[in-house]
Design a protein that fits this description.
The chain folds into four domains: 202 residues, P-loop containing nucleotide triphosphate hydrolases (Rossmann fold), CATH 3.40.50; 155 residues, P-loop containing nucleotide triphosphate hydrolases (Rossmann fold); 59 residues, no CATH class; 74 residues, 2-Layer Sandwich (Alpha-Beta Plaits), CATH 3.30.70. With 589 residues, it is of the alpha/beta class. The two termini are 45 Å apart. It has 20 helices and 20 strands. A seven-stranded parallel β-sheet has the order 3-4-2-5-6-1-7, sandwiched between helices. Strands 10-11-9-12-13-8-14 form a seven-stranded parallel β-sheet, sandwiched between helices. InterPro entries: DbpA/CsdA_RNA-bd_dom, DEAD/DEAH_box_helicase_dom, DEAD/DEAH_RhlB, DEAD_box_RNA_helicase, Helicase_ATP-bd, Helicase_C-like, Nucleotide-bd_a/b_plait_sf, P-loop_NTPase. Keywords: ATP-binding, Helicase, Hydrolase, Nucleotide-binding.
Length: 589
């Protein structure tokens, strides 16, 4: 018996659930679905982004809609076009075995006349952005005076975007006796105001604690001088070769600029913001979902439609104006039971904001340092070795082997390995050998150890052994037994990791891992060459002027030549057609 059946869902939805491969309800689904199915009530559900809220309200809504009537019975309001389309597509998938049920998306940037025609043909469920919905009400293109259910999805984000007046105006056209279901990641005062004004004794469901972040996301911050912010971003990307990330900027202008710089420096990047047309945004998101883009630079508003489960990192290039927005950003990673990392790049003057965010999300940030050039070289070298070890042999190369053997026959196995790896290693080493230390001087409130008197270690276990930075730190503390705060600056990669202790404990650390085995596998610890930091480094040209690079180059030059990314991330500023959903808004979308 599928666990969703126990929640009371009907045969048609269970069939769709089985086809989509869903097996176990998330916590918000487990709590909300039985209530919404069995009671006619208002509800406020607080749950972190990425916890399955769409299904939590979508399944009961589909069950309760009379699909034999063509009258509009349900209205779902969402903050952005992307999220509106995402919800619509999901509802269509959930209801694919429910005959006659029609769900229509209403959003800016598309023909309002075509959308009105779709509604006129019969739409039991409308999914809409507030601006376009209000526009259609004013033009008398839609009638929501007899709806039974109104759902406010991502309510906090809609209100944060300035849609309070639109939402209150839309709700004023709905009947008093309807049920209102409000779903939100956080509970700021504006959401409370809506709940008090338009809801009748709502049932409240909270997954975790109010405003908290996902338990699957670790939080870390890096302190740099403001002028080094972009160089720091590139180092973080180079130190994580398999990065698949969303990078958040505050404004459209900064979003476009950072994306263009990344593309120019050879990274697979693109921008996502409100100045792109709907077609451009669709192309960017398609490329991102297909992993043709590894680094998506986005504004908070545009990112509301991102529903991708495998994002490894969220990078806060700039902190948001509203602390609650950080919860939405970090919720882009650590989804579907997977772990993720939320990184924050801050200047010294911004470090106080970290404390404020910690209080809001009830999580602790770990202070980390921007990786040095030596450390990046080490990471990239072992990443290449792992890629080679996992590569499948293409036997079409057999034809060319005799000629290859002839060219390389004078070299020993060791010489060939050195030559092969030197191609990539030299590229990174030459670039980073004079790179300056980007870490800003501590303000005295940092939790990490000082570089002075600290030793950096390499250990040959990592993510594939089941570790993240928190579990590896606990393992090291238990194994070394050097004190609670002895181990710091833990960085976990796929098959290896780094950590620091004070130099006084160096001999004890090395001795502890002599002949050490973990589940039958030998665990080796070596002292990293880059154990000090900050001793060398040119103060001349910055990283940005030398051109960044990642493992996959399009040419041997540090700055790739020729064509730009064609998925809407270049210099095009074409705006979407029709009236904007977000009227009288600032540049921050």
């Amino acid at each position: 018996m599928n666990k969703f059946e126990a929640l009371g869902l009907g045969e048609a939805i269970i069939k769709a659930i089985n086809e989509m491969g869903f097996e176990t309800p998330s916590e918000v689904q487990e709590k909300a679905i039985p209530i919404l199915l069995n009671e006619e009530t208002d509800i406020v559900a607080l749950a972190q982004t990425g916890t399955g809220k769409t299904a939590a309200f979508g399944f009961p809504l589909i069950e309760k809609i009379n699909h034999e009537s063509r009258v509009t019975q349900g209205l779902i309001l969402s903050p952005t076009r992307e999220l509106c389309l995402q919800i619509t597509n999901e509802l269509k998938n959930y209801s694919k075995f429910v005959s006659g049920l029609n769900t229509v998306a209403i959003y800016g940037g598309a023909s309002i006349t075509d959308q009105a025609k779709q509604i006129k043909r019969g739409a039991q469920i409308i999914v809409a952005t507030p601006g376009r919905m209000q526009d259609m009400i004013n033009r008398k293109m839609v009638d929501i005076s007899n709806i039974d259910y109104c759902i406010l999805d991502e309510a906090d984000e809609m209100l944060n975007m300035g849609f309070f007046e639109d939402i209150t105006a839309i709700l004023s056209h709905t009947p008093d006796q309807k049920n209102t279901w409000l779903f939100s990641a956080t509970m700021p005062k504006e959401v409370s105001t809506i709940a008090k004004r338009f809801m009748n004794n709502p049932v409240e469901i909270t997954v975790g604690h109010k405003n908290t972040g996902s338990k699957n996301v670790s939080h870390e911050y890096y302190t740099v001088n403001s002028r080094d912010r972009y160089a720091a971003l590139k180092r973080l990307a180079d130190a994580n070769p398999d990065i698949f990330s969303v990078i958040f900027c505050r404004t459209k202008r900064d979003t476009q600029k950072v994306a263009e710089n990344l593309i120019e420096d050879g990274y697979n990047a693109a921008a996502l913001h409100g100045d792109l047309s709907q077609n451009q945004r669709d192309l960017v998101m398609k490329s991102f979902r297909n992993r043709q883009i590894q680094m998506l630079v986005a504004t908070d508003v545009a990112a509301r439609g991102i529903d991708v489960d495998d994002i490894t990192h969220v990078i806060n290039y700039q902190l948001p104006d509203e602390i609650e927005t950080y919860t939405h950003r970090s919720g882009r990673t650590g989804r579907a039971g997977k772990s993720g990392v939320s990184m924050v790049i801050v200047s010294k003057s911004e470090t106080r904001k970290i404390k404020s965010i910690e209080r809001i999300i009830n999580k602790t940030f770990e202070k980390k340092e921007i990786p040095s050039g030596e450390e990046i070289c080490q990471v990239q070298l072992f990443h290449l070795a792992n890629d080679i070890a996992k590569a499948e042999i293409n036997h079409e190369i057999d034809t060319y082997l005799p000629s290859i053997h002839e060219v390389l026959e004078s070299f020993s196995k060791e010489e060939l390995i050195k030559k092969f790896f030197s191609v990539e290693f030299s590229r990174f080493h030459n670039y980073y050998k004079k790179a300056k230390d980007l870490n800003a001087v501590s303000d005295g409130r940092d939790r990490g150890a000082d570089n002075e008197g600290s030793t950096r270690y390499f250990i040959n276990i990592g993510e594939k052994d089941g570790f993240d930075w928190m579990t590896l730190k606990d393992f090291l503390k238990d194994t070394l037994d050097l004190g609670r705060d002895a181990v710091n600056r833990v960085d976990v990669k796929e098959s290896f990791s780094f950590f620091n202790t004070s130099s006084e404990q160096q001999d004890a650390v090395v001795a502890a891992f002599e002949n050490f085995k973990l589940e039958g596998r030998s665990v080796n610890v070596e002292i990293s060459k880059d154990s000090g930091r900050g001793r060398g480094g040119s103060r001349g040209r910055s990283d940005r002027n030398r051109g960044g690079f990642k493992g996959k180059r399009r040419s041997d030059d540090f700055k790739p030549r020729g064509k730009r990314n064609s998925s809407g991330s270049g210099s095009s500023r074409e705006s979407g057609g029709g009236r904007r959903d977000r009227r009288k808004r600032s540049d921050r979308n």
